[in-house]
Amino acid sequence: MCGIVGLYLKNDKFENSLGELFEPMLISMTDRGPDSAGFAIYGDEVGEGWVKLTLRHPDEDYRWEELSDNLSASLGCEIKWMQNANVVVLKINTNESSARRALAELDADVLILSAGSSIEILKEVGLPENIASKFNLSGMKGSHIIGHTRMATESAVTMEGSHPFSTGSDLCLVHNGSLSNHNRLRDTLKREGITFETENDSEVAAGYLTWRLNQGDSLKVALENALKDLDGFFTFTIGTKDGFAVMRDPIACKPAVLAETDDYVAMASEYQALVSLPGIENAKVWEPEPATFYVWERK
Fold it and tell me: How many Å separate Cα 123 from the centre of its chain?
């Protein structure tokens, strides 16, 4: 059992308070997932020719400034960086593949949690309230955010095994449920060049969507294919740079609720996660249908 929550802003007047609105949503899912928690937030987008990476290292006292200087010298480009607890966000004036290659050469122990132009992923083992406090979630700004609280069932309680999972540029996914064909699908995706950091079945779902998008699918077409190719029980919430999507499997045994107003779209495993949102009493509220996906994207 896990808890998933998401908030997509239709009105940019709330962007400065996105984290403040989202924090009580995440914490309300503690009973569904006390082992670990995390979130992916979209905002503070870098311009063309830049890439934004969220990085972590096993050493709590890692010298990020030194890494940034060495990386800048190696790539011959400008780098901006910001530390948030034990995680660092780098903005690098180069492409993603060059940045990944240079990082691997400088320190193979640096873990890339996310890459793209907008996304930042922050996650940790522990209670959601503690993780929200650690990363100052309530003070964060952005356009949309998805989060997850985990009660581990099929793999160990580790930071790497916590959600969200990102396996492509500005793409992430949180999942409540379990996939039955993830081992076979993982092997197929590896042959297609998709890499994985864990044995978690949810990471396979994220990798599958990355593969479909790399093949030229739109998000909607990728989700249509996912309904055909993914076996098991699942409610997914998916984030991309421009969008936010929710999808349930054909049986729909994992709970989910959606709420929409003129200002936002919100989703959660339980309605209690939505009660603190402004105007929720006047929102359109419904349960997502089985074998159906819902997509909101910026034009």
Answer: 9
- CA 166/CA 116 separation, integer angstroms: 10
Question: Catalytic: which of 2, 77, 172, 253?
Answer: 2
pTM for the model stands at 0.94
Cis preceding linkage at 164, omega within 30: yes
Question: pLDDT tens digits, residue range 55-103?
Answer: 999 998 999 999 999 999 999 999 999 999 999 999 999 999 999 999 9
CB atoms within 10 A of CB 21: 18
Residue 106, amino acid: L
**CATH code of 267's domain:** 3.60.20.10
Domain boundary among 69, 89, 117: 117
| C-beta of residue 185 within 8 angstroms of C-beta of residue 60 | no
H or E segment to which residue 208 belongs: helix 201-214
Task: Please state the domain count of the chain.
Answer: 2
For residue 122, tell me if it sits in a domain.
no
2 classed as catalytic: yes
Same domain, 36 and 163: yes
Q: Cα(279)–Cα(262) distance, rounded to whole angstroms? A: 10
Which structural domain range is residue 83 located in? 46-117
Residue 235 has phi, psi (to 5 degrees) of -120, 125
Task: Kindly state the tokens that stand for 64.
Answer: 């990020």
Question: Residue 161 and residue 152: Cα distance in Å, rounded?
Answer: 9
- Examine the fold and report which residue of 117, 142, 177 is the final residue of a domain before the chain moves on: 117
Is residue 141 within 8 Å of 18, Cβ to Cβ? yes
